[in-house]
TrEMBL record:
This is tRNA modification GTPase MnmE. It comes from Thermocrinis albus (strain DSM 14484 / JCM 11386 / HI 11/12). One of its GO terms (biological process) is tRNA wobble uridine modification. Gene3D superfamilies: P-loop containing nucleotide triphosphate hydrolases, Probable tRNA modification gtpase trme, domain 1, tRNA modification GTPase MnmE domain 2. GO terms for cellular component: cytosol. InterPro entries: G_TrmE, GTP-bd, GTP-bd_TrmE_N, GTPase_MnmE, MnmE_dom2, MnmE_helical, P-loop_NTPase, Small_GTP-bd. Its EC number is 3.6.-.-.
Amino acid sequence: MIRQREPIVALATPYGESAIGVLRLSGKGVLEKIKPFLKLKGAVKPRYAHLVTLVDEEGREIDEGILVFYPSPKSYTGEDMIELSLHGNPLILHRALELFLSAGIRLAEPGEFTRRAFLNGKMDLLQAEAVADLIGARTELAVRCALRQLRGELSDRIERIRSQLLELIAYVEADIEFSEQDIPTLSREEILKRLEDLIKDLEDLLATARVGNFLRKGLNLAIVGKPNVGKSSLFNALLGSQRAIVTDIPGTTRDFLQEQWNIGGIPINLVDTAGIRTTTDPVEQMGVQRSIEKLGSAHIVLLVVDGSKPLEEEDLSIYSMVKDKDHIVVLNKKDLGVCEDTAKAFPEFVMVSAKTGDGLEDLRKEILRRAGFYTAEGGSIYVSARHANLLQNSLSVIKLVYQQLREQDISPEILMLYLREAVHYLEEVIGTVTTEDVLDSIFSSFCIGK
Ligand code: GDP
Ligand code: ZN
């Protein structure tokens, strides 16, 4: 079951000056390959921290570090693995990499360690993807969700649906093969009931896809409105204060620790539409056009209006650009009073004051509601676009048989074919069946060394 492939090496920590830098190695006979460059007392014990001296071909010392050997199959990849912690000097790490490459060890491709872990059955595809999600997560909520996927929660849910389908197939199969005999079979009503349950389960999972996408890629938020209505102020008030919450831990880079802009744990990408305004100047019109195109990538648009003043032509012309998109009208400057006519002009709006912070919580809630994110506690399972695609295929097939079966009797042979197809899509999600192309596209998004 476990297959040991050719040895690979990669730097597992960021390249740059740091206290330690970790080289990761995996593959068949990897320990033997690097032994000529190691000076250590006694034999290498599994999972034991050895103090070693790294030397080059001529025995010159390069660095001193800690080596841990994880023999197959009890390692991340399932292969023989080594983690070598050296001092985090790029010169040292580079030299060590060179030595190992000269010994016939190849540089790992992005995600290759995790890919091998998947191929060796150490984790399914959903868990492998969760590793990348976890490393790339931009908010604590996204981290929690990735961790749940890594622990196999999404796999379990899909596995449950799959085994229910397989059970149904087994009944239908029995119906075909032993139709003369006294084998328990399901009535048409029972099959329909089971299909209904499956449809419900799949729909529930699919309903998480929108938020799943936002958690992984961020929600694109555009803030538009004519000059001086308070767009910048609102943006800072909505998100900027988060910068101040970050604690200072001595010796760490502040930027790095800072959670990205988020609302309720959903990462926010600000769409730059600074150029949106009305103009008759043809050159400026081009800039306006570009901004409008950018608006196309926004998931949600905030149209900011000065709610304390009567509307102007420009407010309305910007409104006409966004009103067909998912938008929220924000009447700002509530602290200066409300202009009745302005409020009456919009069927729906949220009233805020970027200055005092009044109404901002309502606005955050409204943004989350539009995003399809209802639960405040979060940390649930959210599928990705890849999963959603396949789940949708599975669902469509099941819905099709459900409809046909309700309207007329379909032969068990046909029923079985359909159900098998539905199972197949689920297996693609988990990775039981997969292609090189799919694996390439998934693992190429990983960082080197993972
Ligand atoms: P932008 O041009 O739309 O980005 O508007 P700014 O955020 O630069 O704000 C324009 C002016 O309005 C500034 O003087 C802000 O201090 C002021 N302003 C923004 N929001 C409010 C608000 O809620 N109440 C009051 N009283 N003034 C505000
Ligand atoms: Zn501004």
